[in-house]
Design goal:
This protein is of the alpha+beta class. It has ten helices and six strands.
């Protein structure tokens, strides 16, 4: 299902000038606990199933997801939570007003898609970070740790939630270009106004945790609800069905990867 461009643009025009309830005020970040996003969050969705938390569903069968129009997404068939899409479109036009072009290149990925990505690296069919084949590492924990520098285990990715987007390019070299640096600088300054944060930065990229991802942005009001429920509902017995799944417990995936994110992504949202 696609949103009508006319309807989305109309929503943007209304909300662009109505910043009190839907756009964060950068100058008020110290009052994070006062932010209320009930207009974004569908209260019936706050009880999220383990299947939805781990990406074991198809978005086209979920009424909370829409397909992003190619005016805002680089490719067709990119599915995204409706609330996130509306917020992105408002950010899209604000960036365009500053001559910065934003495009969604990835959003929702289900368990099976993430498994294909993971196993292509685990089995040595694809290099990790275009540098080394993980299959050359015999120790399964070390092999998993290498892959985890850039790819989540199936069932643990924030992309399963439809709350997180990759913008413009997932290639590191793009972000070293003049255009890439300009886009990133704009996002660092403005994304929080629309509810987006960068979950993986240099601070989170320590011995554990994913490498910094300049392209990965999360819609905080919704993603933190998913994250909190993931922490309480998903067990290590739910993280299985792919090569190397047995390493998840030893690597403490939930604490060291899923919960190891930029502190800017922890708003106190009332719902």
């Amino acid at each position: 299902m696609k949103f009508s461009k006319v309807i989305l643009f109309f929503i943007f025009l209304i909300d662009f000038y109505n910043t009190n309830s839907q756009v964060l005020n950068i100058d008020s970040l110290k009052f994070k606990e006062k932010f209320v996003f009930t207009n974004y969050i569908k209260l019936k969705d706050t009880n999220i199933s383990v299947e939805n938390l781990t990406g074991k569903f198809l978005p086209k069968n979920n009424p909370n997801f829409v397909e992003a129009d190619t005016e805002y997404a680089k490719y067709p068939l990119i599915f995204i939570r409706e609330e996130v899409y509306i917020a992105f479109i408002k950010m899209f036009y604000a960036a365009l007003n500053d001559t910065v072009n934003l495009k969604i290149v990835s959003c929702f990925r289900n368990f099976d898609t993430q498994r294909i990505i993971w196993e292509s690296k685990w089995k040595g069919e694809k290099k990790v970070n275009e540098k080394v084949y993980a299959s050359t590492i015999k120790d399964p924990v070390e092999r998993a740790k290498l892959i985890l520098s850039s790819s989540s285990m199936p069932g643990t990715s924030r992309h399963h939630w439809g709350t997180d987007i990759d913008i413009n390019s997932v290639e590191v070299k793009y972000w070293d270009t003049k255009e890439g640096k300009r886009v990133y600088n704009w996002m660092k300054k403005n994304a929080i106004r629309f509810g987006f944060c960068q979950p993986y930065n240099l601070i989170t990229s320590n011995y554990f945790g994913y490498d910094e991802e300049l392209w990965h942005w999360s819609f905080v009001p919704l993603s933190q609800i998913y994250m909190r429920q993931y922490q309480t509902k998903v067990k290590y017995s739910d993280i299985k069905g792919f090569s190397g799944f047995e390493t998840a417990l030893e690597l403490n995936i939930i604490k060291n990867y899923i919960l190891n994110i930029n502190m800017d992504c922890f708003f106190k949202v009332k719902y």
